[in-house]
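Standup notes, structure subgroup. Blocker cleared on the copper (II) ion input:
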Amino acid sequence: MVSHDGVLRVELVVERRQVDVGGRKLWALTYNGHYMPPTLRIQPGDKLDLTMKNTLDEYTNLHVHGLHVSPSGNADNIFIHIDPGGTFHYAYQFPKTLRPGTYWYHSHAHPMSAPQVAGGMSGVLIVDGLQQYLPADLRHITEHVIALKDFQVQGDAVKTQNLHIGDPTNRTVNGQLNPTIRIQPGETQLWRLANVSANIYYNVHLQGQQFHVIAHDGTPVDRIWTADSLLLAAGARFDVLVQGGPAGHNQLETLAYNTGPAGNQFPQATLATLVSEGPSAHSAALPTSTFAPTADLSDATIAARRTIVFSENTAGSQYYINGKQFDMNRVDIRSKLNTVEEWTVRNDSNEEHSFHVHVDHFQLMSINGSPHQGHGLQDTVSVPAKGQVVIRIRFNSYTGKTVLHCHILNHEDAGMMAVLEIVK
Ligand SMILES: [Cu+2]
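Run returned:
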């Protein structure tokens, strides 16, 4: 679904329905009847008019993940409850300065965000415009959305209740098991990798190839960087260029990944098969100098320094931020608009957590005390077990109440979320 004349009008019906997913027929929680709902495409400065109809027997709502937009009223307000049988009209006015890249949308219905997202309630949202930073011969290259979305099975349904993060799961790309992606030898494609799962991590690797990263969490990089594998903590996205190798088949896979002694050991799994075939294309040279302008908060004046502690009980059933479980009626952090703050996010638990803040992106300054040389801003970062990260965040344009939380949604539902209020 693409915006026209500055507006994208969308109706999303939330419905429990049988879907074809990964070669099976299963009951799922869907938007418009699809396990993989429509990809929404907007331009900076657009308005998104979105009507949500809830036919479930529990409340729901919507969050547009990573987007710089008001957290209040009928915009990105995660405190809204759309009751069973109810309809709500969201109106998001995005700024002209919105950064192009890959974002996503999903239920933020505390404390059912994990069941609803695991059931199927997540999709991809793209802000157009990344191509403007590419050389002219790469501005119209083939794009693939690669939504990383997994499902566990219970009886004839996608499992939603009593989710155990480490249980065997089916890792799909756009709802398909091991789909084929085609490329010509030498051809350059833009892949939009998005972890839209409820709870799991992906450590994505493409056999025999490298990823050339042009945007991270919806923010274009200052300089293209190259990686053999990319860690996508729950909620993370990377926009990457991939160049077709010699004719043949290569697996897109997630490598085994361990989130710590109290966490999970995710096994290796095949995600998709890349088939390189057809006439050889001219292999484009990728830009090596400046890619896109980025904010750098290294020399910013710091208005406040805070420590944010993530912890959990030994049973792994209750999760805390600064010793407290989420309470929507309490303001945990009050920050001033147009200031920069430095937060030390400390993880006292024995597993990684996927730290995420709404509304404004942050700059990752260090991991376990080692300075981090980033390539722009991000909206999620995995905090090492028994470790810490330091971030800097500038509060731009929007006041109001919003949240920061762990994007492993089982953890969020069990308390690991705090209210952030941005004030004038
Ligand atoms: Cu967590």
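Discussed briefly. The chain has three domains: 7-130, 133-276, 302-423.
Next: hand off to the docking folks.
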